[in-house]
Design goal:
single chain, 2 strands, 172 residues, mainly alpha, two-stranded antiparallel ribbon
Length: 172
Amino acid sequence: MKLVAMSLAVSLTACSFVTTSAPKEAPDPPSCSDSYSSPVLDVLGVFVGAPMMGLLAWGLTAKGASDSEEDTAIGLTMGTTMIAFTVSAIVGFSRVSRCNDAQDAYRGEMMMRNAQPQYYAPPPVYAPPIAEPPAGTERGFCRPNGTCDPGLTCASNRCVVLPVLPALPATH
């Protein structure tokens, strides 16, 4: 009987019962478990934990116990452990899946409202615009009287350097 009680105690510590949570009801942003690590560990518990509990049961059975009593203890221990981890994995996968669906729905609702969800990072800070060059200087606006600094020409209300064209050969 101690063995079955110990098996139940170990099995009830299956990860997903403790470490996963279902999403809250709307309109709050979902605050729930979105990682599949706990249910995956529960699946490993089915294939690793149950045989380990069977070996433990085999080692703890009374030396004078008959084969049928030993088989019953091992079977109960492995069965209880497998059932607990299987149910925990199913609960965990269900909770995580509902959480991911709720987060997707919340993001979609926020996009439809053209609002930023509460848990997003703020937008990046932008640099201030670059100052315009002073009037009359290269790439600056022409002065109100249409002039620019020496060597510059006012073209399209901007002071620019005009390229020097090569001299064309004289024709005879």
